[in-house]
Amino acid sequence: MRTAIFTLMRLGPSLAYATALIFVLSMPLLESYPASAFAWWLHMTILPVMREPIYLLLAVPGVGIWSAAVLLMLASVFGIRVALQPQRHYRSGFIHAHIALIATGLTMGRAAVAQAGLSGFAMPQLQRSDWSFLPLSYSPLGVVLFVSVCLACICCHLTVIKRIKSAP
What we know:
This protein has helices at 2-10, 12-32, 37-58, 65-84, 90-110, 119-122, 124-127, 140-166. By secondary structure, it is mostly helical.
């Protein structure tokens, strides 16, 4: 039972990467079907949670929507493998979980700004004033992702500590 709970806890980063993948895929869906209520609902539900990390990923030269979708899908699948075999991939799992923690933490800090587009990136003097954590009721999806990724990071730390203690 304990192993199953820790495995579920280690799946948090995969959930975050899968949510980011759904957000990336909602962009071409919205482009193809701009009158679809489902496409707008999907995009607008995930937008406050994944806007910042995905726009940062898409700002990397050479990374388009489809290459970002492939990267996020591979990261999510790799996270499932890491969750199922934590003793074999403890270093990779540590890095995988902490990248997801940084991305979801970035989202929690920047989601308070209601903006469209990339105007926040164009005016760096405004970026310093809008870093504040949101109350838990603001974005339930964001809070669930952040807590699940934090739990995965705790599991990674426990695995590393356990390995250090058992080393001769």
